[in-house]
Amino acid sequence: MIYLVVVLISISVVLLVMGVGAAVTGQGRVVRQRLDRIRTGDISREAEARRRRTERRESLQGMLEALADRMGREESPRYRGVRSQLLQAGYRGTNMVGTYLAVRVLLMAGLGFLGLLVAALFAPDASLRLLAIIFFGLLGWMLPFMVLKRKIAARKRELQRGLADALDIMVVCVEAGLGVNQALIRVAEEMDRVNPAISDELTMVTLEMRAGTPRSDALKNMAARTENEDIRSWANMMIQTDRFGTSIADSLRIHSDTLRDKRHQRAQEAAAKLTVKMIIPLVLFVFPAMFIVVLGPVMIMMIQTFGDM
After folding, report:
1. Does domain 155-271 sit in CATH 1.25.40?
2. Above 70 in pLDDT, residue 68?
3. Which residues of 162-176 are buried (b: 16+ CB within 10 A; e: fewer)?
């Protein structure tokens, strides 16, 4: 038994020494490679390539910002409409409207040029080339708009899903003795991993309140940014509660139950619409296949029978 223990300890010591030696050897190899690269000038070449990439990126960003400044500098109704849509999608940059319009223009020009190349290869007629350029150009102009619409719809659904849970956490915070402002901060922190959209909006509300904006105005701004009916009703409820001095916890609990009932009703409505939506794929894809499977053998037998006659 003692001999076995001594053998195991010896093997462990040998393996430890071999591991330490390998680590030291690997570190020495890395140092030698680093020194060799410094001698041969590879480090300087890597630094130069990295500097060039940084310069190209900054140049492209500067060109995009210059084009954005030219396109989005006027406070027109269209400008305000695009800014409202970007806010609904969660984009709050200082020059996001101009950047968005610049991206649309650049994408339209790029896809238009791509359409010209494709038409030059596959369409000998000049009219077909013109149609291809117009089609690809319109596609490039409309593609960012369609992506933005999908982002807005997805963010609204995320806000609707997370608002009831956020109100439940807020009820717990208020009943535990926190003030409304501290409860909003706590809810924003807790909802960060579960629902980033609602956490982002509540964080913006808390930042506005820290900057001196009254809570009612901050909630109104949140409702205007999101243009979500549930958030607008919650903001109005909070404002009325502050105005009339009613219980915050009771109001939040009742409103949370109301939101859950609305979410249940939306699910029932979507389930009721599913039957009508399934008619089109059934008629176009399922019924023809069923008719072929059921009536196909009968038609073959009939053809064979009348063919023999």
Report:
1. no
2. no
3. bbbbbbbbbbbbbee
